[in-house]
Amino acid sequence: MRIGVPKEIKIEEYRVGLTPASVREYVARGHDVLVEQGAGSGIGASDDAYRAAGAAIADTADEVFAKADMIVKVKEPQASEWVRLRENQILFTYLHLAPDSAQTKGLLASGCTAIAYETVTDARGGLPLLAPMSEVAGRLAIEAAGLALRKTTGGMGKLIGGVPGVPPAKIVIIGGGVVGTHAARMAVGLGGDVTILDRSLPQLRLLDGRVRTRYSTLEAIDEEVASADVVIGAVLVPGAAAPKLVTRKDLATMKRRAVLVDVAIDQGGCFETSRPTTHQSPTYLVDEIIHYCVANMPGAVPVTSSHALNHATLPFGLALAAKGLRALVEDPYLRAGLNVHRGQITNRAVAESQNAAVVAPEVALAA
Ligand SMILES: NC(=O)c1ccc[n+]([C@@H]2O[C@H](COP(=O)([O-])OP(=O)(O)OC[C@H]3O[C@@H](n4cnc5c(N)ncnc54)[C@H](O)[C@@H]3O)[C@@H](O)[C@H]2O)c1
User: Fold this and answer.
1) Is the Cβ–Cβ distance between 58 and 37 less than 8 Å?
2) How far apart are CA 104 and CA 339, in angstroms?
């Protein structure tokens, strides 16, 4: 199969669909890989590095889209890319179609087969192609909090780890899933005083010992937040907007210039006063509480993020390259990623959010 890797064109996106190391894996299995010139520049991977891995370099995105059987990307295609996609072409990337009817229409009109990273599942009910970005965001959340605590950036002037004789900062993490676990690991490593709240007892049992754990009731959140220097919002209720666990009224109980990092902002945020921010201007103040609510946190570290994403997507991409649509027929977890196929929506949540008809992936693939 011929795999195409266009340069990402969404604003502030520096990741790349395939790293040179991944290209080498495809080439080793007899596939052709066509990479748009400069596609890896955001992660320091030169065209020569791609050539050395066995790829051919294309001058334009047009050439990549015209020649490839499968396009591997990071971000959802933009309007100028929808029109380049075509029937019998596989698109493998993050899509986030549910709130995006314009993109959905664009993909339907193209006739392509679009597989969304974010809806591919695994045997444990997890989302294996979202997990690496949650790992990155969780770890980054503590770096962001550390910076926001500094006086020089407008913070209260505390070091996360303290020093001998001076207590560390108190870090409260609400949600002990992938984001929360990785935030905790970073915070513990820096010497912070870490508490995790979750509603899942099995998850709290796993975390117990390394950090203080607490069952997440409204009362527990009130108490922990009031004494925190940093609160990390890392909850997820699958298929729903994030619950608002810290209200504007709660801010009055908090320390002046405490930091709220709302990682769940991409699901609407779990603090009432959160609104999405960018890496250019990541924080703002409400009632003297610092809010950090960057919606695409992994975008700040595209080298780490691209490699982490590639490690997760590679086995699925190789299966698609080897078997084409049969890979979807044979693997129910990959099939869960099928969102659009030959002009039909094949994901229930996407169809429901847009009041459109859905065709079961099995049925669409059999047609
Ligand atoms: N901003 C970004 O750049 C970025 C990047 C990656 C992930 N995220 C977001 O981070 C959030 C967390 O992702 P994840 O991968 O860790 O999810 P996850 O499913 O692994 O973990 C979520 C946890 O929240 C817990 N939870 C649910 N309701 C709760 C409550 N009321 N109190 C306490 N805990 C509660 C669940 O039991 C679960 O353990 C998601 O919204 C995800 O989209 C954002």
Assistant:
1) yes
2) 9
Q: Is 69 helix (H, G, I), strand (E, B) or coil?
A: coil
Q: Indicate whether residue 77 lines ligand 1 (CB < 6 A).
A: no
The residue assigned the tokens 């193209």 is 110
Answer yes or no: is the C-beta of 282 below 6 A from any ligand 1 atom: no
Report the atom number in ligand 1 closest to the C-alpha of 174: 33
Establish whether residue 264 lines the binding site of ligand 1, counting it when its CB lies within 6 angstroms of any ligand atom. yes
Q: How far apart are CA 270 and CA 168, in angstroms?
A: 25
Helix (H, G, I), strand (E, B) or coil at 218: helix
**Residues 193-241: tens digit of each pLDDT:** 999 999 999 999 999 998 999 999 999 999 999 999 999 999 998 767 7
Report residues of the chain scoring pLDDT below 70.
239
Distance from the alpha carbon of residue 175 to the mean position of ligand 1, in angstroms = 6
What is the whole-number distance in angstroms between the Cα of residue 293 and the centre of ligand 1?
A: 14
DSSP character for 224?
H
Would you tell me how many other CB atoms lie within 10 Å of the CB of residue 349? 15
pTM recorded for the entire structure: 0.93
Pairing of strands 289-292, 259-262: parallel
Which residues, 6 or more positions from 359, have their beta carbon under 8 angstroms from its beta carbon? 341, 344, 345, 346
Interval 238-271: pLDDT, tens: 767 789 999 999 999 999 999 999 999 988 899 9
Identify the DSSP state of 153.
G
Give strand pairing partners of 91: 71, 114
Would you say 329 and 351 are in contact if contact means Cβ atoms under 8 Å apart?
no
Kindly list the catalytic residues. Answer: 96, 266
